[in-house]
Each structure stands twice: as structure tokens, then as C-alpha cells.
Design brief:
7 strands; alpha/beta; 3-stranded mixed sheet; about 50% helix
Length: about 350
């Protein structure tokens, strides 16, 4: 209906990008730029799509061309900063975010991004100031959720652990782009709710390592449930034997995860027939709000998970063949290595010495 439809392509590209279809978004943004060469919004959008595909050099080239055409575009400086951040170049990233804020002091995304860089550089008070200022400047619900999650990390780093876990609940807000929708049909447990004699279902969330990390509250929860209570755990399938061995009084099964309309959905099918007997449920990180509100609240336990005795014997025999001295184990890297995470994984060559 519209012979000159490039602007529709730009809007479709933005929608495709939000749906995680970066390659489709790239094609649509290129269509827009063919009609409006060096348009700052089009260049910015295309660079974001390239960045999300890990094509950093191409993204930088697009952004440089846009800045040569108009160096006053704060959004371009901000996106250039995000590319540097993806590459792990925190110092240059901060410089580019500073320039974006010099051009537009009310640019909340740039201030939020600079706060993340300050966090990475250990400037915690400055990171919190930036994050809270960005929150005050932002009304979009999805952006506010993202900023609240960043604030939770900063607060925990500052030792304000209880406040940090409270803010971490923002991950469950339906406005969060990466929210996980849990299917239980049961009431959500809230801190302060009496657990004695109750049937509680906890569902693992995020990655395998996170499920292990968040499990540190399980001994406390079992104690709070008491002899008449019942704990059910829905964890990643590979963790089921470990959790069964570690918490023999709990019922343990694995959760199932799928995508629908751009959202992550998670359920515990092994509980399908018994869900009516569950009094309360919670994602496995939520109990941190009650049981770990300060560094002192982390108990001095030797362990909270029980390893397989056969594997312990195997590795003890292996280590006995090694030279004397302290042995250090390394969790090398995650299986998830998208553009937002790769900078956290050191290259194999760095370990060679």
C-alpha cells in the first residue's frame, strides 16, 4: 500500500530485534538505510543487530560512519560504548558513555550503561549513583526492570545484601524482557510466611551453576519446614542425582523449559498430579531474601551438597598422582556463549603458562 515503505521496515526491524531475530532485524534495517543512508536511528539500530550477532567490527564501522556524518548523536556514542563493553574494553566504553551524557545529560540508557561499566571497574558508589539517576529519568517499564536488576547487583557488591535480594525480584516482573514464566497454579511464598508443616515447591532458575549457588538456603528451609513439612525441588535434569543425595528427605525431579511467543516458560511435569498438595512455591533464588540478608547470614558450613562417593574416590586417586601442594579446580566456561557473555570467559591461551 505504501510505495515508499522503508520506515515500516525500520519498525519491523525493531520488533524482530525485540523477538531475538537479529538476522531478520539486520535485513530490515539495511533496507531502511538503503533509502535513508547514514540516518542516525537506522545506523544505530543496524549496529545493535550486528553487535547482538557478535559482529563487532562491522558494528563499529557502521557507527563510525554515522559519527563522521554527525558527531552530535548521543545514541551513536552510547551504542559504540555498548560494543566496547561487549568486547571487555571497559575504559573506552566509559569514555563513550561519558560523551553520550555530555551531549545529552538526560540520556538514561547511557547513564545506566555507564553505571554497569563503573561496576565492572570497581567504582561501586558511582555505579549506584548512575543506576539510581537513570531509574529516576526512566518511565518505560521494561527499561526500569533492567535497571532494577543492575541495581540489585550493585547493592550486593556494596554489602547491602538484603536490599539487593529484594530488588532481584524484578527478574519475575512480566515487563522484564527475559522473564521466566513459571507454571504452578499455587500461591507464591513470600518472606515472613510461616513454613512449619507446609508443602513447599522450589523451582530452579537460570543456569545450572545458578541452581547450585542458590541451593545454599535449602538446609535452612528444611529446618524451617520441620518434620511435618515437605520440600519438593524441580531442578535441571543433570542435577537430580546430586540433589537427591544431598537432600534425601526432599522429593526431587527435573523441570522442563520451552519458548512461546518470545517468552521462556518453565514447569515441573513430575508434579502434575500432585500440584494440588503444594501449599506454596517459589523460584529457588527467592528464599535468599529471608535467609541471606547480610554477609553474616551465610553459615560456616563445610558443604551444602553431597558429592558422589565414587567420584570423590576417583578424583582423590587422580590428585594423589599430582605434585604436592594446593590443588585448584577451575570451572572453565559456560556452554552459553552469546555476545553478552563471552567477555567473561578467558581464552584458553591465557591459561597455558
Amino acid at each position: 500500500l505504501l510505495p515508499d515503505h522503508a520506515e515500516i521496515a525500520n519498525n519491523l526491524g525493531r520488533l524482530a530485534f525485540r523477538l531475538g531475530q537479529e538476522d531478520v532485524a539486520e535485513q530490515l534495517f539495511r533496507h531502511y538505510l538503503a533509502r535513508f543512508p547514514n540516518h542516525p536511528e537506522g545506523a544505530n539500530n543496524l549496529a545493535c543487530a550486528l553487535r547482538s550477532q557478535g559482529r563487532f567490527d562491522e558494528a563499529v564501522d557502521i557507527l563510525k560512519s554515522a559519527l563522521m556524518a554527525d558527531p552530535t548523536q548521543a545514541a551513536i556514542w552510547n551504542t559504540l560504548g555498548t560494543v566496547m563493553a561487549e568486547l571487555g574494553d571497559t575504559e573506552n566504553a566509559e569514555i563513550f558513555f561519558d560523551e553520550a551524557l555530555r551531549l545529552d545529560p538526560d540520556f538514561s540508557k547511557a547513564r545506566y550503561n555507564r553505571g554497569n561499566m563503573r561496576l565492572a571497574m570497581g567504582f561501586l558508589e558511582g555505579a549506584l549513583e548512575d543506576c539510581e539517576t537513570a531509574l529516576a529519568q526512566t518511565t518505560a517499564a521494561d527499561e526500569r526492570i533492567m535497571m532494577r536488576l543492575a541495581r540489585s547487583t550493585i547493592l550486593i557488591n556494596l554489602g547491602r545484601v538484603g536490599e539487593g535480594w529484594d530488588e532481584y525480584e524484578a527478574r519475575l516482573d512480566p515487563n522484564f524482557a527475559d522473564v521466566t514464566v513459571f507454571h504452578t497454579g499455587r500461591p507464591l511464598w513470600e518472606p515472613g510466611t510461616d513454613l512449619a508443616g507446609k508443602s513447599l515447591l522450589l523451582i530452579g532458575e537460570q543456569g545450572l551453576g545458578d541452581e547450585v549457588l542458590f541451593a545454599n538456603t535449602l538446609p535452612d528451609i528444611l529446618e524451617r519446614l520441620g518434620p511435618d513439612g515437605r520440600l519438593t525441588l524441580a531442578v535441571e535434569k543433570r542435577l537430580v542425582p546430586l540433589f537427591e543425595r544431598s537432600f534425601p528427605t526432599a522429593r526431587v525431579g527435573h523441570h522442563v523449559t520451552g519458548k512461546m511467543e518470545g517468552r521462556t516458560h518453565r514447569a515441573a511435569p513430575f508434579m502434575e498430579r500432585d500440584m494440588g498438595g503444594v501449599d506454596l512455591w517459589a523460584p529457588i533464588a527467592t528464599p535468599l531474601r529471608e535467609f541471606r540478608r547480610s554477609p553474616d547470614a551465610f553459615p560456616d558450613r563445610e558443604r551444602f551438597l553431597t558429592p558422589d562417593p565414587e567420584r570423590v574416590a576417583h578424583w582423590r586417586a587422580q590428585l594423589e598422582t599430582a605434585p604436592a601442594g594446593r590443588k585448584v579446580g577451575l570451572l572453565w566456561k559456560s556452554a552459553i556463549s552469546n555476545s553478552g557473555r563471552h567477555r567473561f570467559f578467558s581464552a584458553f591461551d591465557q591459561w597455558r603458562p
